[in-house]
Amino acid sequence: MRRSALRRPESLTDKYRILGKIGEGTYGMVFKAEAYSSGLLPRPSGSASASGASAAEDEEPMTFAIKLVKSHKEGKNDVVLSSATIREIKLLRELHHDNVVHLHDVHVDPREKTLALVFEYGDHDLHDIIVQSKQKPLGEYTRKSLMYQILKGVDYMHDAWVMHRDMKPQNILVVGHGRKRGQVKLADLGLARIYKEPIKALSDVERVVVTLWYRAPELLLGAKHYTKSVDLWAVGCIFVELINTRELFCGKEVEGSNAPFQKDQLDKIFKVLGMPTPQTWEGLENLPEYNHVVQMGRERKYPTQSELKNAVKVGPGRAGAALLDLLSRLLEYDPETRITAKEALEHEYFKEIVRTSVKLKQ
């Protein structure tokens, strides 16, 4: 092959124009970017893939979120990625749904030895929306649309035998512009797992999943086998947060411990939902941390029945009753009787679902 026919590998900035940094964490950095490949932006001079393509006048440049993944090097040439990153890439290449974030591109820069994951861009996460709604409350139909779309995404993942395992407002994106405005996207699948029945036991190095405030009680009590219902408990917590504009169960985590039991978090749950018993939760007494439940019951008096209706700002009448029933079934102690995403989508509360744009500040 002639030397003139060889092209140097494209760098990330050959393909995308970086607009600015939008986030940073233990995983790496996230940037907002536009694609040159759409033909809607002039490419940098000398780019390996420069094209004279033109775009329709009414089209807008495609916007993406680029996660520049942290890695560590072993030797001169090998770059090692975390298992969470590898898992997220594998899963997102197989998942295709309107309510699950789309992985547009995986870019490897052989010169810099870096990896970038290119996702469709979500202008806001659900946490942003909840904060905004403290000043300007969401309309009932907008809130219902958000809830419905979250369940649609969870239902799709569960049908594909995937548990998200880290459902929380920060991991739920909402598109704020264009034709997809108001569309919900489940994101951040770093803790997601393909599962089978029966669920394999948790390993000792993976005893804690799901962010504390959204962690199901069976996980807090050391269950070594758990099901997709852990996602539905988290969804119930998220729905209450959408309604109340504040978290429902804000326990203080014991730092530096890999043990599943978190007393303060369970205390917050028991105060609202009452103290569970082997009669109301079959198999409770068999959970590894059950002795802590007994001890907590001796230390203080908890309600014997759920007081969720006093903790959630639901409206009056049939609609309010339907919403409270849905929340109660999502926040059911027994994972075997907790409502599934598919069942929740058929719940009376969603009988009249109106597709609506989510109005957000730009």
Automatic annotation (TrEMBL):
Q: What is its EC number?
A: 2.7.11.22, 2.7.11.23
What keywords tag this UniProt record? ATP-binding, Kinase, Nucleotide-binding, Serine/threonine-protein kinase, Transferase
Domain Protein kinase as annotated: residue spans: 16-350
Q: Which reaction does it catalyse?
A: L-threonyl-[protein] + ATP = O-phospho-L-threonyl-[protein] + ADP + H(+); [DNA-directed RNA polymerase] + ATP = phospho-[DNA-directed RNA polymerase] + ADP + H(+); L-seryl-[protein] + ATP = O-phospho-L-seryl-[protein] + ADP + H(+)
**GO MF annotations, alphabetized:** ATP binding; cyclin-dependent protein serine/threonine kinase activity; RNA polymerase II CTD heptapeptide repeat kinase activity
InterPro entries assigned? CDK, Kinase-like_dom_sf, Prot_kinase_dom, Ser/Thr_kinase_AS
List the GO terms this entry assigns under cellular component, sorted alphabetically: mediator complex
Task: Using the UniProt record, name the top-level EC class of this enzyme in a single word.
Answer: transferase
PANTHER family in the record: CELL DIVISION PROTEIN KINASE, CYCLIN-DEPENDENT KINASE 8-RELATED
Q: State the similarity comment.
A: Belongs to the protein kinase superfamily. CMGC Ser/Thr protein kinase family. CDC2/CDKX subfamily.
Q: What is the protein's quaternary organization? A: May form a complex composed of at least the catalytic subunit CRK2 and a cyclin.
| The protein, known as | Cyclin-dependent kinase 2 homolog
Q: Which organism is it from?
A: Phytophthora kernoviae
